[in-house]
Every structure is written in structure tokens, then in C-alpha cells.
Amino acid sequence: MTSLKWLVHHLPDFFPYSFGRAVLRLFHLHLTRVILAFAMSTSTLSSRFFSLFVSLALLSSVSAIPWPSTSKHATHRRRNIGGREVESFHPESTFKTFGSTGRSFAVNQQLFDVSIEGLAIAFFGSRGFDTSGIKYRSGYSAGEFQYAYLKQSANGIDFANAVANVVFKGDKVVSFGSSFVNFSSVRIPSATPSINLKDVLPKIQSEFNATKPDGSEPALEYLVQSNGSVVLAYVVQLRNSLIGAAFEVFVDAISGVVLSITDFVAHASYTVVPIDKASFADGLQTVTNPQDTQASPSGWHTINNKATTTTAGNNVVAFTLRNGTRDFQESPILTFMAKYDAAASPNTTDNTNAARANAFYVANRVHDIAYRYGFTEKAFNFQHDNFGKGGKGNDSVDVIVHDPSGLNNAYFSVPPDGEPGTCHMFIWTKSLPNRDGSMDNGILIHEMAHGITGRMTGGGTARCLQTTESGGLGEGWSDTFAGWMEQSSRETKDITIGSYVYNRTRGLRRFPYSVNTTTNPLRYSDLKKLTEVHYIGEVWANMLHNVYASLVQQFDYSSDRFTNPDSPAGNVVFLRLFIDSLAIQPCNPTFVQARNAWIQADVNRYGGKHRCTVFKAFASRGLGAKAGPQFDDDGTIPPDCS
Ligand SMILES: *[C@@H]1O[C@H](CO)[C@@H](O)[C@H](O)[C@H]1NC(C)=O
Ligand SMILES: *[C@@H]1O[C@H](CO)[C@@H](O)[C@H](O)[C@H]1NC(C)=O
Ligand SMILES: *[C@@H]1O[C@H](CO)[C@@H](O)[C@H](O)[C@H]1NC(C)=O
Ligand SMILES: *[C@@H]1O[C@H](CO)[C@@H](O)[C@H](O)[C@H]1NC(C)=O
Ligand SMILES: *[C@@H]1O[C@H](CO)[C@@H](O)[C@H](O)[C@H]1NC(C)=O
Ligand SMILES: *[C@@H]1O[C@H](CO)[C@@H](O)[C@H](O)[C@H]1NC(C)=O
Ligand SMILES: *[C@@H]1O[C@H](CO)[C@@H](O)[C@H](O)[C@H]1NC(C)=O
Ligand SMILES: *[C@@H]1O[C@H](CO)[C@@H](O)[C@H](O)[C@H]1NC(C)=O
Ligand SMILES: [Zn+2]
Fold it and tell me: Cα of 26 to ligand 6 centre, how many Å?
């Protein structure tokens, strides 16, 4: 009991995905003991505690089987994947709510403290369900609420679609939902399949034009069908990233027939600052399905092949902290469409939801775009599941929106490949009401770019941008990447970073990034006077701004830049060289080495086609061919370029 209390009070309320399984397993071991303790102590419980379950059990009735065929849209979905049509069935759930105060009962305080899962299982037991067939799946607490999610199981086989959930507020039940089946009125088939999956899989794969990804293991689960019968089924993951398909099929383990499907590619909507706009000041738009399934084959709302209904997925987990625990916006239909009210404080419910949605959207777009340009699994990117494509997984990016640990800033911590990155987004107090860093895309993209440069320089160790000069390059790349997103036409515009959060036209930096030497006079020789990485970064970012403008001027601009890295357009070539050079340059590069990496990247990818354009632009700001480590300006361009 002591150890259980320790677990309950010392584990984070939200289980981080990377060790959630292990923790839950640990929980289960202890849970068994709790249930036993619970069962043994019921006789000594006060009658008031016992009445909790009795009175609740009378509140609603379990829906009858089979489910009514008249409400098909609530229970069925017809899909066409790769040319094969299939209709899935999802049992109707009972759902009972008890208002804002919840249903009042007396609870044995000591037992309540012990375990949410013990209580949740006992609750459904009191409603007539066989508790030996109920498993605690997951749960967490947020503020005053505790959420538990359960599933049924028989003969050691889990049910795919017989699930339940219950919410407690303090000592009251606030609501519960259930699609549990009644074991005494349904025949549970044997747990032994009679066909071999590999005999039928080739046909199924070709019907759906998709294949089983390496490393995914088929499972056996019970599936409740629309006529109420229960079938033993193989569950197989299938993918075809070229057509954006990511799903699982349920194959009858007796007949080999495809019974149902779960589509992981969620259709989601977000009200956000579009990725090619600087901040909230440019207005919000509602975007639908912005995920790039080539970069994110199971979409943005899937973790370990399980769909999520929050701002949490394989690439990015965005949340605020409430009393130290992760607080997500929940949307079962994936519509994250809160309107941001600029006249209100950032921490209202709507504004918090809008900020989480925007941070989630921007961080995922950065993942998807950088992926297309080469920041992939094997190039040490940030993903929980690497789909067997190399690199280390278990490292999505945690974005802490409204991080209470600071104000007027943001930062990104980049650990080695295989450990999650963390993006800390703060509130800014430069204006009233305060402004939210998570509504400023430039700030978000700047931070996410630190993850790209920190991982790709030096091969995923995150140890290779540690010197002052390379740290300055890091700041420069981050501003540059943010600026690249905003360039939405052939006319290269000047770029500022943080104008919105700082409520200042020039934003956080001393000068806008510009090709105009009056607007931005920074040159290589300015490094002689600079010791702070952001100031150093301004010099690098402005050189790159000039490289960008020259490339676009000579090689044109392409608006399909987010998805077509093979375009010959100057703006696309620029990001290619940006990403390629990271992988080429040495650990802790200098300005000269970083420039040389751009030149080499161009040789590697384009046979040196853009070499002179790039060299001339660097030379125009003092980083010419003869520039040395003393930061003396040099305007030399290679002889064959003049
Ligand atoms: C099957 O997948 C290929 C790519 O793998 C795609 O080109 C083709 O259009 C798909 N066929 C159908 C019917 O979706
Ligand atoms: C399950 O079915 C049995 C027999 O039909 C019935 O007595 C019992 O009340 C049912 N339990 C639930 C939870 O509906
Ligand atoms: C915050 O956590 C503390 C300690 O766990 C708890 O006493 C307090 O009630 C919590 N407050 C809220 C608002 O959840
Ligand atoms: C339910 O439907 C399946 C076919 O989908 C059939 O094989 C089975 O016999 C039916 N069960 C009942 C109880 O009607
Ligand atoms: C919301 O932010 C304001 C300051 O902007 C602060 O005074 C207030 O306490 C915050 N409210 C909550 C619930 O955090
Ligand atoms: C993630 O972590 C688990 C447990 O530590 C490990 O078994 C698994 O191989 C890791 N996945 C990847 C892709 O590295
Ligand atoms: C932004 O700054 C301007 C002055 O530069 C000031 O007039 C305005 O009130 C500020 N806006 C907010 C929301 O604080
Ligand atoms: C550069 O900017 C200054 C003002 O910042 C402006 O007067 C000048 O005309 C600009 N030069 C060019 C070539 O556009
Ligand atoms: Zn930075």
C-alpha cells in the first residue's frame, strides 16, 4: 500500500509516452493488489460509500444489442482506401453526465486517494459488468478532474471496440461513457485463430494498395460487430505514404474476411496563423488537414498507431502546464478552432486553446517542411515513432505553451537523437494585454529551427554548436528559417523577428534583415565587436538573407516550396543548401566553414550551379573568398565567378 501511494503521488499525472507503457505495467502489478485490497475492505466500508455505486447504477441503462440500424452515421463509416471500400462499425456508447457539480456521493476518502483505476473498475462492476473482464487502459488528472479509460478483455484477448471512460471531480462522478458488452448475453469465441494471417495478407495488401510497415506486429483482438456478435480478428497495420494512407484492418481470424478498419489519418481543422505569416497581427485562418503525409505518414494525431484527440502526436506534443501537469485541449473530432481575442489576457480559455493549436500547427509544419528537405529520421529528426526508417525514435518535441518559468523570451533544449526536444514558449509583457509567444510564428519557427541545426550539425549528438561563433550561426539560421517561411512572392521582402510580441516594428533584432545596406549595415567585420550569440547571429542571418535574395533574383521563385524540394527555383535551392550544409559542416563551425559548407552543398547537389551566386552574396557582406578567422572584411569572389 505504501508503494502504491508513492506511485500515485509521485508519478506525473500525465504519463509521458516514452515510458508510459512501463509505468502502466508497474501500475497494473500494484493495481491487482489495490483491487484485492478494495474487494477485501468493502465489507468494512461505510454504507454511504457503498451507496455511491448503488445509486449510480440506477441512473441509466446500458443500450441494447443489436444497435439500431436507423442511426448509421453515428456508428458506421464507409471509406475507400487505395480503391478498396470497407465499412467499419463502432458501437454506440452510453453517455451520462451530471452537470458542473457532479453526482454527490460520500466516498471513503482513504480509498479514493489510493487509486483512480481501482475506483473506475469498481464503478463499472457496480453497473453489472464482470470486473475480471475490465482493464484499465490509461488515465490522468488535470486540475480537479481525474479521467480513466478502460477496455474489456476475455480469454486474455482485448476488445478493440468495447471501451468505457469515467470522470471523477474530487469525490464525485461527473460523467461516464461505455460501449461495454454484457458477457452473460454475448457468446465470446475461442481465442485461437483457425487461419494463418500470412495466407491472406498478400491479397489484402493488394486490395488496399498498401503494405505492412516493417516492425509492426499483427495482434489478435475481439471485435464487436453491428449485429452484436463478437469475432476474433487479426489486427494489421497497413501503410502507403504515397497516397497518404495509414490504417489498420481487422481480419476475421476464422474466415480471413476483412471486417473493419481504423483510419489513422485524421481530418483535422485548426484556426491558426498560417505558416507563411509572421504572427497573429497578420490574421487567423482555419486550415483543414494541413498535415503532409509524406513527412508524417500517420498524420499529426497518432502516437504508436493510436489516434489521439488532443494537440499530441508523433512529431509534436503541445500543452500548457496546469499545476505542474500537462494540460491539453481535447477535441474528439480534431477541430482546434478557438478564436484568439487580442483584447483579453493570453490565459483565457479560448486564448489558451488558440495558442496551443497554433504552436502545435506551426511545430508540425516545421517538422513536415524540414522533413521534405532532408531533416528525416536518419538525419536525427524529432519523432516518437521513426517507422523503421532509421535514427532513434522516442523523441517528439514537447512544446510548453505559456511556460511559467519565464517571460519575454523562448528557448529550445536540444538533446541528442533519441531524447525529446523541448520548446519553451513564454508570455511577453511588452504590451497590454500581454502577448503570447505562441501566436508569433517567427518565434516558434526560430525555436524549432534550433532543433534542426543542433541535431544535424555533428550527427545527432547536439554537441556541435557550443562555441560562441557556432552558437551565433545557430541564432542566425533560426531567424533565417523563420524568414524563409514568410517569403511568399518573387519580391524578397525585409524580415523582422518578434515584431508582434515585442510590439515594436523592428522586432527583437537591431535591424530588419535586408539587402539594403542602409536598412541593415551588418558585415563580417562586425564580429570583431560582438560577443553575444544573438548579435553574432544577426550578421549571419543577414548574409543568408542576401544569399536568398540573389538566388531568387537569378533562379526565380516557386510557391510550391513547402512540398517540392526538387524545384529549381532559387527559394527552394536556398533551403536545400541550408539543410544540406548542416550535415556537411564540421563540429562547432566558424563563419568561413559554414559558408564553405554551403558552397560544397551546392557542388554535391547541383554540380556547383549556384556557386558564384552564393559566393558573391557572401562577399557582398565581407565573407569573401579570402576572409579569414580575424573577421576582416573581404570582398573577393573566385576568379571564375567574375
Ligand atoms: C496505389 O499506390 C500507388 C503509389 O504507391 C499510387 O501511385 C496509385 O495511384 C495507387 N492506386 C490507387 C488505386 O490508389
Ligand atoms: C447482462 O445480461 C444479464 C442476462 O441477460 C442481465 O441479467 C444483466 O443485468 C445484464 N447486465 C448488464 C450490465 O446489462
Ligand atoms: C495543485 O496541486 C496541489 C498539490 O498536488 C494540490 O493540493 C492542489 O489542489 C492543486 N490545485 C489545483 C488547482 O489543481
Ligand atoms: C452476425 O453477422 C455475421 C456476419 O457479419 C454472421 O456470421 C453472424 O452469424 C451474425 N450473428 C448473429 C448473432 O446474428
Ligand atoms: C492570467 O494572467 C494574468 C496576467 O496576465 C495574471 O494576473 C492572472 O493571475 C493569470 N490567471 C491565471 C488563471 O493564471
Ligand atoms: C523507444 O524506446 C523503447 C523503450 O525504451 C525502445 O524499446 C524502442 O526501441 C525505442 N524506439 C526507437 C525507435 O528508438
Ligand atoms: C504598442 O506600442 C505602441 C507605441 O509604439 C502603443 O501606442 C500601443 O499601445 C502598444 N500596443 C499595446 C497593445 O500595448
Ligand atoms: C535603402 O533604404 C533607405 C532607407 O532605409 C532608402 O532611403 C533607400 O532608397 C534604399 N535603397 C534602395 C536601393 O532601395
Ligand atoms: Zn535562438
Answer: 18
Q: How confident is the model at residue 140 (pLDDT cuts 50, 70, 90)?
A: low
* DSSP strand pairing (427-428 vs 84-89): unpaired
Residues 388, 377: contact at Cβ < 8 Å? no
| CB of residue 184 inside a 6 A radius of ligand 2 | yes
Distance CA 392, CA 417 (A): 6
Rounded distance between C-alpha atoms, residue 387 and residue 393, angstroms: 9
Beta strands per DSSP E along 115-216: 134-142, 145-154, 157-169, 172-178
Measured in Å, residue 323 CA sits from the centre of ligand 3 at 6
Nearest ligand to the C-alpha of residue 61? 2
* Ligand 1 pocket mutation, candidates 239, 242, 294, criterion most atoms within 8 A of CB: 242
Give the model confidence (pLDDT) of 200-219 as tens digits: 999 999 999 999 987 778 99
pTM over 0.85: no
Among 321, 56, 65, residue whose Cα is nearest residue 167: 56
How far apart are alpha carbons 68 and 326 in whole angstroms?
39
Which residues are identified as catalytic? 447
| Helix residue spans in 174-305 (DSSP H) | 197-208
* 148 closest CA partner among 36, 314, 306, 27: 27
Q: Please report the pLDDT score of residue 1 as a whole number.
A: 26
Question: What is the distance in A from the centroid of ligand 6 to the CA of 425?
Answer: 28
Q: Decide whether any atom of ligand 2 lies within 6 Å of the 125 Cβ.
A: no
The C-alpha angle 14, 15, 16, rounded to 5 degrees, equals 110
